[in-house]
Amino acid sequence: MKKGKQSLYRGKNFEYRIMYKAQKMGLEASRIDLSGASEEKGDIIIERKKYECKYRSSGLKTLYGWFAKAKEENCEALIVKTKEAPCLVVIGIGDYLNLLLEKKQCQKKNTG
Fold first, then answer.
1. By CB neighbour count within 10 A (0-12 exposed, 13-18 middle, 19+ buried), where does 44 fall?
2. Residues 46-93: pLDDT tens digits?
3. Model pTM?
4. Which DSSP string do the residues of 78-111 spell out, in sequence order?
5. C-alpha to C-alpha distance for 30 and 57, rounded to whole angstroms
6. How far apart, in whole angstroms, are the C-alpha atoms of residue 70 and residue 60?
7. How does pLDDT run across 5-42, given as a tens digit for each residue?
8. Where are the chain's structural domains?
9. How far apart are CA 77 and CA 99, in angstroms?
10. Burial state string for 13-32 with b = 16 or more CB within 10 A and e = fewer than 16
11. CA-CA distance, 2 to 4, in Å (whole number)?
């Protein structure tokens, strides 16, 4: 298999893994058909919000190192910024999906 196709399959597989994880937790989730190649941008939708998914076999070692250190120190998240880019909060996917689930449950309580 050519490297380009292998990367495409790896990325698509990653998108499905995130989508299924969200669905398993009770969140509404779907993959955008032809993600990236159609007029509709983004890769997956969770609770009516679009998400772009990026899978890299390398290239984020420093970020992951900082994240691992933060987790070892019992930090909830890693917050990063460069001079010319916006501030980002890095959390694990499980923690993020739990936040979405809590939000969904609170909304149900408030409307029901």
1. buried
2. 999 999 999 888 888 999 999 999 999 999 999 999 999 999 999 999
3. 0.83
4. EEE--TTS--EEE--HHHHHHHHHHHHHHHHHHH
5. 24
6. 15
7. 888 889 899 999 999 999 999 999 999 987 666 677 79
8. 1-55, 58-112
9. 13
10. ebbeebbeebeeeebebebb
11. 6
